[in-house]
Specification:
Blueprint: H1 15-23, H2 28-31, E1 35-40, H3 52-65, E2 69-74, H4 80-83, H5 90-110, E3 114-119, H6 124-135, E4 139-143, E5 150-152, E6 155-157, H7 159-171, H8 176-185, H9 198-209, H10 226-243, H11 247-250, H12 253-265, H13 271-282, H14 289-298, H15 313-319, H16 321-331, H17 347-351, E7 376-381, E8 384-391, E9 399-407, H18 410-418, E10 427-430, H19 445-453, E11 461-464, E12 476-481, E13 498-502, E14 507-511, H20 518-524, H21 535-543
Parallel strand pairs: 1-2, 1-3, 3-4, 9-10, 10-11, 11-12
Antiparallel strand pairs: 5-6, 7-8, 8-12, 9-13, 13-14
């Protein structure tokens, strides 16, 4: 590696900068090498990112071994699982923008030559990729990996089971002792939530997007081999710096469609819709809701993962990991294998290295899918002119027609579920929880988990302008756009109106119970006062776009 000139550290005028950098241990030799930012999303709050400081040690060792100088810095993270069902959950989606902005600021401020972004939870992953696409500095994402499953009465459990246990406990079908035991044993250590929830969904999406090395995210958080994966990431970023390959060289329209296929074939989280649209925007590419429905419709559901299936992420790793998923999708023509990746090889070349464990049941053979089409559908109609998003991998129902039970907040709906006042056939409508109205488009896992836990998962439907955790299952439609606070039709729905959901026709409509039209009701509607008018929430509420365009602020 030849010496390079960085405007931050080169020349007599930069002596003050060098003096300050030397104060924290950098030498003249260090400052003549490429400066590589290591963006760490470590926090001490929750397991998803808890181990990333240790992982960063190995990333930096790889950078140094390959001739670079790593400079580690931190950004924020909000744990969805911890804040779920509280006011704090409003911070989650907002944090995606803050993460991207903060990585951009530190990178631009210090003129880094390359960037490794260490991510571990739902919003750090898309936030990190958004920053890479925006900056277009040679770099990649490294996912910290999944948590191991907990054990409860001899079978594996995840945080999903705890959320559903809340409903079971309230309904009297789970004892206090079992409830407490499950809480204590569900999360045994570091790593992101163990099913194909949002973190693992976005991790595999990043690999198919090409911005993370295929197979790197599959290795669990506490697997000793994760250190080797981290060191290789450090070496790999130096290869990208040398070759001049930048994020927008790998994040293309083709790779975005590959990422959608990965989400669909694994029964992944509906949050991927928001995040991939936001990433596309940062890369200067067009991506629309209709693309998700189109690609999911042609992609078989091949991977049997929770929340709709039987297995967890560590089982997928043992079966052959994301490389095996890629090989299956190449076999069925579900992805374009010519797409570039940060490894320097194409997606098909990486998929060809997959090693399938004999007898594994997690990834189905190409000719024997779980379902012929993937897990995501987009609905439109009088209730959702701009669209709503639904995951169908965990339900066999194709239609639901029932009376609306309308709630103007998640808390009010959760209270109704806990009081067992929701009846079979109802459609729970939760509004004023959209990107602007929330603000922050809270996830509804507390409500959806309680509904399933109470034994109502196959008897009711739920519609919201908020969003869902990747752990949500059931007949649930989120991301309703336009949202209620901006005058979307969902603001005009009344108790007793008939909500009609038709998956086959991709429609979501409302039939008035009192003869008035939605237009007449909206003419008399007045937007409620915003929950926040100042601070980051107030700023976000004013700036954020519709869920149908990724809920972005730029």
């Amino acid at each position: 590696m030849t010496d390079r000139s960085n405007p931050l550290t080169t020349g007599p005028s930069r002596a003050p900068a060098r003096a300050m950098l030397k104060a924290v241990g950098f030498s003249d030799a260090d400052l003549k090498k490429p400066l590589i930012g290591v963006a760490n999303t470590w926090i001490e709050i929750g397991p998803c990112n808890y181990h990333l400081r240790d992982l960063a040690v190995h990333v930096k060792a790889g950078i140094r071994a390959a001739g670079g100088t790593p400079m580690e810095f931190n950004t924020v993270s909000i744990s969805d699982g911890i804040t779920m069902g509280t006011e704090g959950m409003r911070a989650s989606l907002v944090s995606r923008e803050v993460i991207a902005d903060s990585i951009e600021l530190v990178t631009r401020g210090n003129g880094f030559d390359g960037l490794v972004v260490l991510v571990g939870c739902d919003k750090t992953i898309p936030g990190g990729v958004m920053a890479l696409a925006r900056l277009n500095v040679p770099g990649l994402v490294l996912y910290g990996g999944s948590i191991a499953p907990g054990q409860f009465h001899g079978h594996p459990v995840t945080i999903q089971d705890v959320f559903e246990a809340v409903g079971a406990h309230a309904a009297g079908t789970m004892t206090n002792d079992d409830f407490c035991r499950l809480e204590a044993d569900a999360c045994p250590g570091a790593g992101a939530c163990g099913g194909q929830f949002t973190a693992n969904t976005m991790a595999i999406a990043c690999e198919f997007l090409g911005i993370a090395a295929l197979g790197s995210g599959s290795v669990p958080a506490t697997d000793p081999k994760k250190a080797d994966v981290a060191r290789l990431a450090g070496e790999r970023v130096m290869s990208l710096v040398r070759s001049g390959v930048r994020p927008r060289d790998v994040i293309t329209r083709t790779s975005l469609e590959n990422a959608i296929a990965a989400v669909a074939t694994t029964g992944g989280s509906t949050n991927a819709v928001l995040h991939l649209i936001a990433i596309a925007r940062e890369a200067g590419l067009d991506l629309e809701l209709a693309d998700f429905d189109r690609i999911s419709s042609r992609t078989p559901l091949l991977v049997d993962l929770k929340p709709s299936g039987r297995f967890v992420a560590t089982d997928l790793h043992a079966a052959g990991g994301s490389r095996l998923v890629a090989r299956r999708l190449v076999e069925v023509g579900g992805v374009d294998g010519t797409a570039k990746t940060v490894s320097g090889r194409t997606l098909a070349e990486e998929a060809a290295t997959a090693v399938e464990t004999p007898g594994q049941e997690v990834v189905r053979p190409a000719g024997r899918p779980i379902k012929k089409s993937g897990g995501l559908v987009v609905l439109r109609g009088s209730l959702a002119p701009e669209g709503g998003v639904m995951k169908v991998s965990g339900t066999e129902r194709m239609q639901h027609r029932g009376p609306a039970r309308v709630f103007d907040s998640e808390e009010a709906a959760f209270d109704a579920v806990q009081r067992q006042s929701i009846k079979a056939g109802d459609v729970v409508v939760i509004r004023y929880e959209g990107p602007s109205g929330g603000p922050g488009m809270r996830e509804m896992l507390a409500v959806t988990g309680a509904i399933v836990g109470a034994g109502m998962g196959d008897k009711v439907a739920l519609v919201t302008d908020g969003r869902f955790s990747g752990a949500t299952r059931g007949f649930m439609v989120g991301h309703i756009a336009p949202e209620a606070s901006r005058g979307g039709p969902i603001a005009a729905v009344k108790d007793g109106d008939l909500i009609v959901i038709d998956v086959a026709r991709r429609t979501l409509d409302v039939e008035s119970a009192d003869g008035s039209t939605l237009e007449q009701r909206l003419a008399e509607w007045r937007a409620p006062a915003p929950r926040y008018t100042s601070g980051v929430f107030g700023k976000y509420a004013r700036l954020v776009s519709s869920a149908s365009t990724g809920a972005v602020t730029g």
